[in-house]
Amino acid sequence: MAIESVGESIMSKIAEFLAEPAIRQLRYMFCFNNFVQEFNEQKQNLTLEQDRLQNAVRVAEWNAEEIEKDVNKWLEDANNEIEDAKHFDEQIGNNGKCFTWCPNWMPRYKLSKALAKKIETLSKLEEKSKKFPTVSHKAPLQDIEFLPNKDFTPSKSSTDAFKQIMEALNDDKVNMIGLYGMGGVGKTTMVKEVGRRAKESQLFGPVLMAVVSQNPNVTNIQDELADSLGLKFEQRSIKGRADRLWQRLQNEETMLIILDDVWTHIDLQKIGIPFGAAYRGCKILLTTRLKSVCSSMECQRKVFLGFLSENEAWALFKRNAGLRDEGFALNKVAKEVARECKGLPIALVTVGRALRDTSEVQWEVAFKQLKNSKFLHMEQVDEQNNAYACLKLSYDYLKHKETKLCFLLCCLFPEDYDVPIEDFVRFAVGYGLHQDAESIEDVRKQVCVAVENLKDCCLLLGTESEENAKMHDLVRDVAVQIASSKEFGFVVKAGIGLEKWPRSFGSFEDCTTISLMGNRLTELPEGLVCPQLKVLLLELDDSMDVPCKFFEGMKALEVLSLKGGRLSMKSLECSTNLQSLQFIKCECKDLISLRKLLRLKILDFLCCSSIEELPEEIGELENLRLLDLRGCRRLIRIPVNLIGRLKQLEELLIGDDSFKKWGVGGTIRGGMNASLTELNSLSHLSVLSLSIPEIEHIPRDFVFPKLLKYEIVFGVERSSMSLKMLPTKRTSYSTSRRLAFRCINAISLNAKTFEELFSTVYQLELDLVSGLKNLMLFQRLEFVNVRYCGDLSTLFPEKSWRPLKNLRTVRIDGCDKLEEVFELGEVDQVSDEEKVLLLSSLTELVLEELPTLQCIWKGPTRHVSLQSLIHLTLRRLCQLKFIFTPSLAQSLPQLETLQIEDCGELEYVFPVSVAPSHADADKLKKIFGSGEGEDVFITDEGGIIEFPQLRKLKLCRSGSNLNLFSSNNFAAELPSLQDLQIEGHNQLGNLLAKLLGLTNLRNLIIKDCEGVEEVMQVRRFVTNRRGGLVLQNLTTLEVVNCKGLRHLFPSSMIASLLQLKVLKISGCEELEEIFAKDEILSETHLQSLCFPSLCEIEVRECNKLKSLFPVITAAGFPQLQYLKVRDAPQLTKVFGHDDKASYVNVEKEIVVPNLLQLSLKNLPSIVCFGLGCKNFLFPRLQRFMLGNCPKMETKFTLTQNGSMSAQSEVSQVAEASSSSCAMPSSTYKMWTRNGGWKEQVFDGYEQEVNPAGSVVVASCRGLCETEREGKRREK
């Protein structure tokens, strides 16, 4: 029974398993309509779900949300399934007709089965859509600041700044970078471009940017940074938000934060920026108008962004104004408008966009408005976003009234004017500024501080001289606008070429300041009513007489500056409030009337040559504090005791080109005159400038007073020789302590008289001073210039270490007995506080024409450092055997210029040698050594010594085998070298092999190197240590009198000479080829090479040269303007090659598009201009010279379009030709584009002196064709 029961169970299970599939299969055949109905319902449900999700997605996209990836995938799958379901609709429709009356069971079965499978797929897809928690999420905000910006215009200034910033961003030692510059110069645009590049290169994680502004709002800054990070603050307090931001930012490994428009020091921790030791991964780039902000924020790199050049400015302006090249008339006035914007990007963009699509008349009006500093009067300019508003913001930020007034005083000077800071000082004293100052020097210091603050704000610019400042023209326009307001009452018409008093001037009743500087007025009104006028600056024609009543209506006048014209001081008698009075090149009369100006503090007579004597009444000016008489060449009398009566006098400036006839004890021959003893009665005297031509004029017991600044010249300057040290302008202010001794005997000097001067002097000039052995008496010297002092043997003797601490410049010339410059002793006896490295401030050392000089430094040099030396020049030192000791040779990090000429005994510049046996010999490969006990070990295993700043190296006629190093195992790394000149060296190849890394070489001059066969014969010169070419920046190459030179370069170097502009070769008698064809380049490669920048080629006196360049390269001179070849007896063609195969791929016509001058002279063998090319075209040729070329067969003719054509039928050049028809070699013809042909005959050696545009053609067979063609065209 049990067995039967088990069997029945198994059989029932089998029946069950078999029945279910059978039923399913039967359903496929008999329940077709059910499957169809279920399919339609499921498809409809899926379509509804798809619409629902699609609507949700659309709403999310409108809200700038990012759609979840699985949602997008579901929508894509649903769409595909619904599209696929359409095929089932067609099958159901077709098969349904048959199924009604005569069903076909097999198609019904297959379709039902497929529908069942599709229903299951659609059902699962519908269920999946209900599991999405959300269809989207908030997308991280895209920083639109870092999108490509069309306003970013690459320029030299911006490119340099961008390069510096990117280098700093890649420097691990730099984490704070400051970009500063004038408002509107493009700082924000620049940092946005930096941010974009940083994001593209993935240099950092997040790149964030926030605007700080003039009044920083910490909450706003936090919000800007948080928005870029997608961070939401739940905290309300600034500290809580800062903590949250700090926490979020520390999750990033690296990041760049750009803080724009910073005006003052900001607390990064208060904002929530982890920085410094707290977080090394954060770098900050800030922009500011104030250089001081870069300092207060401790920026390791400070980058200045300057203005655009004229061409760069025009390109930016043209783009914003929508100008086209073909609009010549409009572009002409548009360029003038662009020039008035002075390279300031915000002005160029603002004005350009404002004038876009306007008429020419509107452009002309705009130009006049800009010219007259009326930027705001332009209707089209936005009142908020323009250069004026931008720059005025910088003015408004100035904190002190005095600084603001100093800024406004700058606009009184003409455009592009180097404003003397000393004029500010004298105007400030007269104007009553800084009344709390006790002395003029105190006022000067405060004015200098104000000027530095204005420079720091980029409202003023520096100049070459520290004595001047400059104001950008647009900044000046802003200053004029501000100063012209009712608040200040300025009238400024400076430097606009006025000759007559402007008719546009109305009432002056509210006027406080008038500036007519930089004009040459030939007329003035009889009088002006200016009751409030305090400052008047005038410039007149020299012949203009100032009306006697001109100043009567100016009772309040305090400052008067008059340049040119003629003036009687009687006209100033009513102006009793005058405190500062300045006359420049003015013819002054009736000086006695100055006695009534009792409030006068400053009196200047600068270059007033009409003044011959000062009246005694000037001594009554009891408040006078500064008297300036420099440049009064005819002044021969200052009454005795006049100077002594000016008890308040602080500064007396007479100079070395004014009064010199000092009395001794009150008398001189011919009358009474002032003496030097009067200086001792001036208790306030602190600044003195004068000349004492004869030592006898110094009273015996006279002692110079203690002075703050002085400039005193003793002796008479020789007319044939003037000292070159620190030349000063005629009216420049003495800012140092300077003594000059000329043509005197040092023995005649009384040491007690000069005790105070000798101990404090900074600048010392000695010219033809006899009896002087050394400079031991001078303790604080900074500048020394010594010339032709025949008794000088040692400049600074042993134990005179004090003068060596501050020395900055030393120049010595023509001292026949000088044997050493610095005699160095031990400084062990010096206290620790006084111990410093001697000569550590020396920046320039120039030694010339010293026939007995044997050494520069004598004695131990371990306490000497040349760490600041920038320029070293040695000329004609015929006994000098060495320059540096080993310890000095390694302390030259700042050396930029090294020039050595005519030092015949020199064998090397730097003393080095191979290291001896040593315990660590495997590491210490090289040493500096000279046997003086000062050997210095160098661990550079390559034997390469780097001179990182050296920019100019000149080695001329200083021994035929002069080397840089005393050992051949050393080489110099010169990454900054730009100028290299070598003369008179017979082992040029060996020398050049020691110069590595010349990646910035610009100019190369080789002269009188007879032993060299190829300039670039040493491949180590051609390549750096990493194998890259290093001549890619070479612009000038000049080779002179290298008698043995056969080749200049291998052809393989052409590709590296892309920047070459000038090529000059002369006196190379053995030169056969300029570029020797080598195996590196095939003919095809050679054809593709060119000289894209070459402008000038000059070749002369090269006896064996047969051609300049392969003709296959002739089309590669797009910029060539000057081509001159002469005195080459074997030259047969300019372009060509001896290899006939070279001409296969040559074009039949070659254009040299920019050639202006062509000169071929004294070339007796030349047959054609270019062999292998039938026609050369010179469309811009202006000058053409061809003289003494009897075999020339090339025909030079003018084409229909006016181009000069050189046509050659020559296919082969013979060594000699007897068929040539030569004209007399002394016959020349000149062709000018404007004047046609002219014939000239020269008796002797022709010297090329021709007017611009002339072309000389002479003695050539093709000349007749040219002349005939010219006459035919004339007919």
Automatic annotation (TrEMBL):
Domain of life: Eukaryota
Statement: the UniProt record of this protein carries the keyword Transmembrane: no
GO biological process assignments: defense response
Domain NB-ARC positions: 161-322
One family name in Pfam for this protein: NB-ARC
Keyword terms: ATP-binding, Coiled coil, Leucine-rich repeat, Nucleotide-binding, Plant defense, Repeat
Coiled coil regions, renumbered to chain: 36-84
Gene Ontology terms for molecular function: ADP binding; ATP binding
Classification via InterPro entries: Apaf_helical, At4g27190-like_LRR, LRR_dom_sf, NB-ARC, P-loop_NTPase, Plant_NBS-LRR, WH-like_DNA-bd_sf
Disease resistance protein At4g27190-like leucine-rich repeats domain span: 777-904, 1026-1069, 1082-1200
Family listed: Belongs to the disease resistance NB-LRR family.
Protein name per its UniProtKB record: AAA+ ATPase domain-containing protein
Organism: Dovyalis caffra
Origin organism lineage: Eukaryota, Viridiplantae, Streptophyta, Embryophyta, Tracheophyta
